[in-house]
Amino acid sequence: MTPEEKYGFGPRFYRSQMGHGRFKAFEVSFKDSDLWIGVDSKSFIPDMVDFARSSLIALRQELEEFILRCPQFRTSFSPIEIGPFAPDVAISMCNAGKIAGTGPMAAVAGAFSEVLGKALKKKFKIGEIIVENGGDIYLDIQKDIVLSVYAGNSPLSGKIGVQISHEISPLGVCTSAGKIGPSVSFGRADAVMVACYNTALSDALATALGNLVTSPEDIKTVITKAQKYSEIISAIIICDDKIGVSGQLSICPINSLP
Fold it and tell me: b/e map of 196-225 (b: 16 or more CB within 10 Å)?
């Protein structure tokens, strides 16, 4: 049985479009965690692959052991309180949920991306790194980059680029979708992308805002709500053929992915 069949995440075909030339890419997975990691070509060494995988396994096991002691951490759709002796990743997820108004698991993919990205950069001499976990991205870059917004079956999918300046790096850029993917969403947006300096928070806020988009008519209201969060650098909402944008990041058209 493939991981896709067992855990419900599909092949990440959009990854083939990421990091052409600039990054040496590899993937690591464990259970339903499936990460694409791009390291600048000059920095990459093969030892990074084994380190990333062992770090992912350790992180998953640490969180799963905590959840056995605190089952509501996995099941709650609203913020919860946890003790001071919880793992750092659980505390980060819980804090993100408190700001966003979600359960802590709404931040899990973004939290993992950032923890793994920082661990790799600390262990190895890495110039640039991108870690993508189910559309939730941690990036630490030295040159500007354009990220394409994947929005499922929307006619705008892959046609909108988000310009990320290296000057605001490192940061998290996370995407929630109500129509595709295995994550729980109560909305119907094709994509809600949120950028914050904290990747766990980006993930939780993308989920929270995505829950509010049930039709294109909701975009304006939800964008206005996004503007009230001082932690949000930028937000982008795509629903069908409509788009809303707020914040300091610029968007640009992408005629076709390379």
Answer: bebbbbbbbbbbbbbbbbeebebbeebbeb
Sequence spans of domains, the chain: 3-253
Rounded to the nearest 10 degrees, the angle between the axes of helix 88-100 and helix 199-210 is: 40
Write the pLDDT tens digit of every residue in 88-98.
999 999 999 99
Q: How confident is the model at residue 3 (pLDDT cuts 50, 70, 90)?
A: very low
Q: Which residue has the tokens 């001499």?
A: 125
Q: Are 237 and 189 in contact (CB under 8 A)?
A: yes
Q: How far is CA 36 from the centre of its chain?
A: 11
**Radius of gyration of the chain from Cα atoms?**
17
Domain 3-253: CATH superfamily is ApbE-like domains (3.10.520.10)
How much is the average pLDDT of 159-179?
Answer: 89
Per-residue pLDDT, 255: 67
Q: Is 22 exposed, middle or buried (0-12, 13-18, 19+ CB in 10 A)?
A: middle
Give pTM, 2 decimals. Answer: 0.89
Average pLDDT in the 175-204 region?
80
For 101: left if phi > 0, alpha if psi spans -120 to 50, otherwise beta; the answer is left
